Structures are given as structure tokens and as C-alpha cells.
Automatic annotation (TrEMBL), chains A, B:
Listed name of the protein: Pyridoxamine 5'-phosphate oxidase family protein
Gene3D superfamilies (alphabetical): Electron Transport, Fmn-binding Protein, Chain A
Residue segments, region Disordered: 1-20
Classification of source organism: Bacteria, Bacillati, Actinomycetota, Actinomycetes, Kitasatosporales
Record-linked InterPro entries: Pyridox_Oxase-rel, Split_barrel_FMN-bd
Length: 227, 227
């Protein structure tokens, strides 16, 4: 998978640096387990954090927006848009014997960099397909593709995976030695994201069955079992 | 619940303004359905987005960190730390007949403002309890409370709910009229966050049973049923 991502003064956490990871395998796996990121940028000197759909392809992530939205407009400029993109999956509640050691098991990735608009129409069409596939594998072959007008109204930002870090907490509570004899239960409660049964649109022809690829959705859960 | 939050030039979305809500009931319900936010701030002119635990109390939200972390240090200054806090719950995949109308059902809240450190020890202890209760109701009565040293090592930021907006998408796909006859399935796939069975710590005395309040956890799921 290539060399690790380099460490910089802004991707080494000040807290729990032992939980930080810079290898591509870990980073890619976390990014590929989700489709919603939180996109941070600066507007008039103040921070803004927008929930945004994304998909990774190689060493790029692509962010989905509409042409009228603020970050998408800014990304079209020559200088691009400085961003921080963060993806977080919660895997468990960590319930320790002491209030202080309560925690969460989680996997997160933070990407710093400059986002730039994708302008090539074929490239946009391919990214839109990848976004649909990420959410529901198989779906991109069972839809009407975007036409030229729709592609023009779709804004996509591209961000290179260059300054990247992952942070992972796993395992049980880290109780203090002197608390081990206390009478309180200690352990973890797994947290999982699951898909419910598909619900057809009100205007759907009832002779159209639920597609088989939707039966496979549970294999694409964004929370890894066993963490 | 009091008057709506005021609209400002930065809490009215440029896209789909019809999905925006400013009433306290909607905003509080979304905030109270979660415990993980994404905290955005500016460092050396660039955006940073950190996954962070939070809890709402009245018209304040409290953010949890450690005394050494960057935003917590900055929040101790007289001027506080300008932040944007965003909370997002994904409720469903929205699968339309066209690529373009694929979407997500979600509920999100965005809070802009200046975060300030909580310094009073009793206040900190009360907020820590509230954080534990939010994650596992009943738990704060079944732990060793934080002592003075632990409270000193805990940093909490407070942010007033003043410049706030919610954004909600619900319902089925919005297919174009001319796509309604296409042979593609259309509808939603619910997405839910669920708790697994509690797993005791390796060092737990096996005579200590799983507490009854953990059986109630599923009532506290952060994803509302039926959305």
C-alpha cells in the first residue's frame, strides 16, 4: 500500500499519541467504512463544519455538494479551499469503574489539505457513480445516470490524501489499579450501525421487486464487528 | 420552549433552505439524540475538525476534552475559542431512480459561537455526570465519581445555543416526473444505530452482574425509529 503518510506538526495528536496511525491500510479501511464526513473550512475567519458525503478513490477523496454551496464555490477558485475532513465511526461505549475513565471505542481519520473542484464531466460522472456504489453496492448499474445538465449542477471537490492521520481506540476500560476492587460493573457496550428493510417509494410500481443487491447491504455496514 | 433561534447570515443554508429549522424543540431533540459532535475551530488560519463528546444542558452544550488539547487550551483564554459544532444523525439511504436524486435522510444541528472553559470544580463534576448519563442513563450512580485531581485534569468547554440551526431531510426519493416510469426500484433503506450485548472487562469479578440500566440502553438509541 506504499509508505506511511508523513507526520507533520498538525497531524500528531497532543492527546493519546499512541492511538495515532499513519499507515495507508488503516487509513483507507476507516475511510472505506463510511460515506459521511464532516468538512471543516474557514469562512470570514470563523470555522464552519458541514456534514458531507464522500468517497475515496486511490489517494483522493471526493466530496459531494451543489454548485451553489459555499465550499464548492470557494473550491473553484485558483487557490482552492483549505479544509479539514474528519470521518468518525463509534464502535463501543467504554464503561469504566470511575467516571474519569469512561470513553468511547472509535476509529477516525483526519485529512488536512486544499480541496479543488472537479470540472471534467466524465470525471464527475465516474465520481457520482462511485458515491452511489459506496452507499449501496450494485446500485450504480440500476439507475438512470446523470445527464449533462445534472452533472453541471453537481459540484465535487477533490482532496489529496497527503497530510493524514487515523486515531483508533479499542479494547476494554483502562481502570486504575486501585479501582479494580470496586463493586461497579466494567466493560464495553458495542455500538453498531445497521440497515433496516428497504421501504419502497409511494409512487413505485408494486411489480418492481426489491433488488437483490440491497439484500447484501449488511455486509457493507460501516461499523466493523468485533471492535 | 421559548422563541426560535434567530436567523443570521451564517445559519441560513444556501442549499435546500426549506429543510432548515430554528425552533428549540427540533434543535434540542437532535442534540439530545447523540453524544458525539464534530468540533471545528481555526488553528494558524486553517480549519481543524475534532470528534468530541458533548452533552446539552438547557441552552448550553458542553464539550469534553483534556487539559492538554489545543481547543481546550485556547478556550481558557479571555477571548474564548470561536467554534462551529455540528451533530449529524443519518436515518436512511434515499435511493432514487436517477443518480442525481440519491440522497440521505438525516437530522443535523450546527452551532456557531465562542466556546469557553468551565473552571468551577462543582460545575465540572456535574457536567461529567451528565456526559456519563447521556451515554448510559443510570450509570452516573454506579461509578466512582471523579476526585479533585481527575477534575483538574478534565477540560470542559461551554458553548451557548445562540446562533443555531437544524437541517432535516425525511421522506422518500424526489424523483423527476419523467423518471417515474423507469424500471428501477426506488425507496429508502433505514439506517439505525443499535447497542450490542454488554461485554464485561477481562478483569471484572464474574459475580458482578450486568446492571439493569444497561438493559434499557436500546431506548436511548440516537436514531429515531420511523424516520
Amino acid at each position: 500500500m506504499g509508505a506511511d503518510y508523513p507526520t507533520t506538526d498538525r497531524n500528531v495528536p497532543t492527546r493519546n499519541p499512541g492511538r495515532a496511525h499513519y499507515d495507508r491500510t488503516t487509513v483507507h479501511a476507516i475511510l472505506d467504512s463510511g460515506f459521511l464526513c464532516h468538512l471543516g473550512f474557514v469562512r470570514d475567519g470563523a470555522p464552519v463544519v458541514l456534514p458531507t458525503m464522500y468517497v475515496r478513490h486511490g489517494e483522493q477523496i471526493y466530496l459531494h455538494g451543489s454548485t451553489g454551496s459555499r465550499p464548492m464555490l470557494a473550491g473553484r477558485g485558483e487557490e482552492g479551499l483549505p479544509v479539514c475532513v474528519t470521518v468518525t465511526h463509534v464502535d463501543a461505549l467504554v464503561l469504566a469503574r470511575s467516571a474519569m475513565h469512561h470513553s468511547l471505542n472509535y476509529r477516525s481519520v483526519m485529512v488536512h489539505g486544499t480541496a479543488r473542484a472537479v470540472t471534467d464531466t466524465d470525471h464527475k460522472a465516474a465520481v457520482l457513480d462511485a458515491l452511489v456504489e459506496r452507499v449501496a453496492p450494485g446500485r450504480s448499474q440500476d439507475i438512470r445516470p446523470a445527464d449533462a445538465r445534472e452533472l453541471a449542477a453537481t459540484a465535487l471537490l477533490r482532496l489529496e490524501l497527503a497530510e493524514v492521520s487515523a486515531k483508533v481506540r479499542e479494547g476494554g476500560p483502562n481502570d486504575d489499579e486501585e479501582d479494580l476492587g470496586l463493586p461497579h460493573w466494567s466493560g464495553i457496550v458495542p455500538v453498531r450501525t445497521v440497515h433496516g428493510a428497504p421501504e419502497p417509494a409511494a409512487d413505485l410500481d408494486p411489480s418492481i421487486p426489491v433488488p437483490a443487491y440491497l439484500d447484501d447491504l449488511d455486509r457493507t455496514l460501516r461499523t466493523a464487528a468485533g471492535r
